[in-house]
Structures are given as C-alpha cells and as structure tokens.
Amino acid sequence: MGGLFKVIPKTGYLMWIGSLALAGIGIPGVFGFAGFYSKDMILEAAYQGGAVGQFAYWLGIAAAFFTAFYSWRLIIMTFYGAPRADHHTMEHAHESPPVMLLPLTVLAAGALFAGWLGYDHFVGEARGEFWGASIFVAPGHDSIEAAHHGPEWVGILPLVVGLLGIFLAYVFYMRKPSWPAAWATGLSPLYQLIFHKYYFDELYEAIFVRPAYWIGDLFWKRGDQGTIDAFGPDGIATTTRSVSAAFSRLQTGYLFHYALAMLVGVLFLITFYLVLGGV
C-alpha cells in the first residue's frame, strides 16, 4: 500500500475520523470524538477504584498510547508516502461502492457526534433518568460520580498519550521511515519477544499440542491400527485373503494337474481303506 489517499480520498477521510475517535482525541470542555468521552470516563472511573483500579488505569494509559500509535501507523503506511504496490495494482485501486461507503459514513457520524451529543445522558447529570432501572448502582459505589471528582491530570493524561502516539507514528513512518527497522535491530530481544507474542503460541504448542499429538499418534498407531484393526476387521480380512490366495493357486486351469490330483486322491483313498481293512 502507500500513497492511496489521492486514489480513495473518501475512504481516507473516513479512516481519519475513525482513527481520531479510536485515539480519543478532543478538546476538553469544547468538543471531542466519541472515543475521547468513552475512553476518558472508563479510565477516570478505574482510577477511582482503589489500588486495583489504578493498576488498570495505567494499563489503559499504555493501551491508549499504543492504540494511537498503531492507528496512525496504519493511516500513514496506507494512504501516504510512495506507493509500495506495483503499477498494475495501483491502476486498479478505486473507491468502495456506496453500499460500503454509506454504512461507513453513518459510523463516522457516530464517531464524530455520539459522545458529544450523548455525554450527559450516558455519564452526565441525566444518566439516572436515561438508564432508569436498567443499571443498578449500589449506594456508595457510583463509579461515574467518583470519576467526576478525580484529579484533573487523570482525565488529561489519556489525551496526552494519544497525541504522543500520533506524533511518534508520524516521526517513525513519515519523517524517519528508517527508524523502525533500526529500533527493531537495536532492541532485537525485546522486538522478538513482542513479535512472537511473548512466545505464548510456542509454549502452548510445547505444553499442550505436541503431547496431545504424541498421545493421539500412540493410540492411533499402537491402539487402533496395531491392536483393534490388526486383530479385528483388518486381521480377519488379511487371513481370509491369504487363505483365499492359497486355495486359488490350486486352480491352475491345466487338465493334467486336475488328473494328477484325482489320481493322488484315489491312491489316498485306496491306501486308507487297505490300512483300515488290515486293522
């Protein structure tokens, strides 16, 4: 991708709106995207929840930073810079049809105005009347009310880290595109750890997948094939086939073989009766 904004500007604008909402960008007390209101309220309420809530708050701050960073990495690498696709691919790039753009436009409108229009009803002074009995709040446990009385910096920090994530994505992928590879090389152990998702997949395979595969292979080859099939249907079928093959070899189709067999049989019967008669 890259350089697609001139080719699909409508999609580019919609991506901008969605990413701004996802990063929680807004001007306190004036206007904000939907994510600005929802993310701030969640984090402010978490901060007021004691030690566990504050731990969750700082995890949320880290998530807000990385969300803004990768959102703008996506926008920059998709819509800006030199195209990385071949000429044939770029010639066929085009806007989505209205059946896709119209729902995206509705979603973009929600990302723009839902938080601004619904703040008082969702988490503001009118929330009790709006939610009614659908949400029960125990006395003394109103986390939304507590969020409104927290330190001011608690509500500002998510916006700050969101803007910081956008700025760093711009620097890394627009101004200094060689930096990501250099950082990945310089911090190779950390990069590999994160790139491999903390090796959870490898650990899961070593602890669960491979032993399960080994046990299944054992039951399949030694149990199913080696015992049940060998002494059951396969064994009976093999024995029947071997016996049939042995008897079929007696049917040669040559007359002198059959005459010889009859002669041997007659001699056997005569010998048998002579022996039996002598006894």
General description of the model:
The protein has 279 residues and is mostly helical. It has 3 domains: 9-195, no CATH class; 197-248; 249-279. It contains 13 helices and 2 strands, in the order H-E-E-H-H-H-H-H-H-H-H-H-H-H-H. Strands 1-2 form a two-stranded antiparallel sheet. A hairpin with a 3-residue loop joins strand 1 and strand 2 (31-32). The protein is elongated and about 125 Å long. The mean pLDDT is 87.
Widest beta sheet: strand line-up: 1-2
Shape field: elongated
Strand content: under 5%
First-residue to last-residue Cα separation: 104 Å
| Uncertain parts | none
How many structural domains does the protein architecture include? 3
User: Cα-atom Rg, whole angstroms?
Assistant: 39 Å
The helicity comes to over 70%
Order of helices and strands: HEEHHHHHHHHHHHH
Tell me the total number of β-strands: 2
Average pLDDT works out at: 87
Q: How would you classify the helix and strand content by structural class?
A: mainly alpha
- Give the helix tally: 13
How many strands, what sense, and barrel or not for the largest sheet? 2 strands, antiparallel
